[in-house]
Amino acid sequence: xxxxxxxxxxxxxxxxxxxxxxxxxxxxxxxxxxxxxxxxxxxxxxxxxxxxxxxxxxxxxxxxxxxxxxxxxxxxxxxxxxxxxxxxxxxxxxxxxxxxxxxxxxxxxxxxxxxxxxxxxxxxxxxxxxxxxxxxxxxxxxxxxxxxxxxxxxxxxxxxxxxxxxxxxxxxxxxxxxxxxxxxxxxxxxxxxxxxxxxxxxxxxxxxxxxxxxxxxxxxxxxxxxxxxxxxxxxxxxxxxxxxxxxxxxxxxxxxxxxxxxxxxxxxxxxxxxxxxxxxxxxxxxxxxxxxxxxxxxxxxxxxxxxxxxxxxxxxxxxxxxxxxxxxxxxxxxxxxxxxxxxxxxxxxxxxxxxxxxxxxxxxxxxxxxxxxxxxxxxxxxxxxxxxxxxxxxxxxxxxxxxxxxxxxxxxxxxxxxxxxxxxxxxxxxxxxxxxxxxxxxxxxxxxxxxxxxxxxxxxxxxxxxxxxxxxxxxxxxxxxxxxxxxxxxxxxxxxxxxxxxxxxxxxxxxxxxxxxxxxxxxxxxxxxxxxxxxxxxxxxxxxxxxxxxxxxxxxxxxxxxxxxxxxxxxxxxxxxxxxxxxxxxxxxxxxxxxxxxxxxxxxxxxxxxxxxxxxxxxxxxxxxxxxxxxxxxxxxxxxxxxxxxxxxxxxxxxxxxxxxxxxxxxxxxxxxxxxxxxxxxxxxxxxxxxxxxxxxxxxxx
DNA sequence: GCGAGTTATGTTTTT
DNA sequence: CATAACTCGC
Length: 702
Description:
single chain; 702 residues; alpha/beta; 32 helices; 23 strands; 15% strand; DNA-binding
């Protein structure tokens, strides 16, 4: 059986799969079968008698975990829930050992939007000006500290400058707010688990004893907290197997520490290192380009990529277009061509650096009637109506979640406003109870008038009613809440509520999927699972549609035909990353990841002009294009410049500075080109905005 | 408490 | 520039 399993693997792969005890690092380039090695290794371990229960496999996304589980099922070696992401793994540990970690197991997981709300609250509590300390900056700083396992007390000792002192205060306050709401953010999941493993010998020993084998994929993108968890889990049996590629490390900005993989041999003495150098994915030309590009990184270990696929002509192209409209139209046309050659749309993907780039692409694809899907999972759950429904669910399991409560109370509006809630919050603080509990005892709050009490009562009754029915399947529960909370009625009554209702229906369907997939569906678990949803998780690989996604999301995927757009300076590499040497190298790795997704053809495009923030601006081809070793020349030229047609005039006039004899100088906001009767809308320096007939306005372009 | 008007924020990338 | 979040007056 095992022999059959191993047939078709290379010697290096076999060695990695069969390697039994001690630390193992598999350094492997793109398309070399890293994930395959992990999967086979699990299968081999199980075949040799190891129980799935004793194996812990960590993948980068839930999608990857699902796929791995499916493969294992195919190999007749189900590993069940033992395959998961770091975050899901931590949720399970924190729930099981909640009392050791002194947390409530019904915790809510706060996403980015919730986090921002908390930081704003923290800024308010600390009476700090949010102008000098923008919430997003503070949040990132707090997140960075958590990833390094630095708690507020640790930080107090190293905070010496003014910013650091403020940060410490904000961090402390932010953490207090989370605790009060019985909520954990993404970073807490890792940090609390890591600290629990450090501080509780009992928990550490139990887990370290249980997990005889630990396997971690995409190790190059682990942060310090994850490293600490891994170290603790492997502390007893020392059977850690990590796979990764330093050249594909693209999450440094999120706290990922490339040193984890570079120092593996130091961290885990007696480690064996196996390199997989054969690439089974891309044709030689694409690999050469990728190799040539990544060679420009100074901070890297030399690595080789040996192609195993035969060469095919025309596999890499670089094309220049006038603007993003032409660029995306050309991509749509190429996709149309592929389709006419019977290429399935499933095998085509378009990557871009920034999410904003998806819009012109969508327009072009719609125009050409090419079905597509934007791979961006979390977005669905951040829609207003979805958040509203989820707010109800969250209070049911965690009545301390004040953000959820505030949201639910007034969606739909119930006449319970800021003042009423503030009074309830005051009462809650005084009596050391949750705001929800305070509302439940509204009759005892003297400051509230009878009207307010009368409005609160039915709301509480409704929630209590829901509460008594939370057991079992989630989908019917959501459906019931949607109707009984009058959210459904309110949405149906609003004029563009049809889409919203449709979205909730989709939420119910997704919940039904969850109910089916789990033996013991439960609301808490459901909520925690959807909070850990990632972008790739929404990717429907079976749909006959072109996939659109960012370069980050593309990690770990592969497609026959890959398009990468807007390869221009300030986009790839991004403006914010082109100054710092390390960040620039990370941008290069990001491009490297994108290129190496291609199984057959790779089409790279850029435009000479691009609209950014509504402003048309001249672009510069990305320096990376010159590094591909493809004798690429910037096909820029004066001749194109002179052929201005009307369409170009439209785009050029908008945004430019003009002078008017009477109103002075101003910026063109809008240009409606109707030939003779064309109008321009100009915002003048005097502050007034005027719409003028172009032929009479007598404007001078400055 | 609610709507209209104003202003922050984002266009890096995400579990 | 476009949207979301916030503020202020009714």
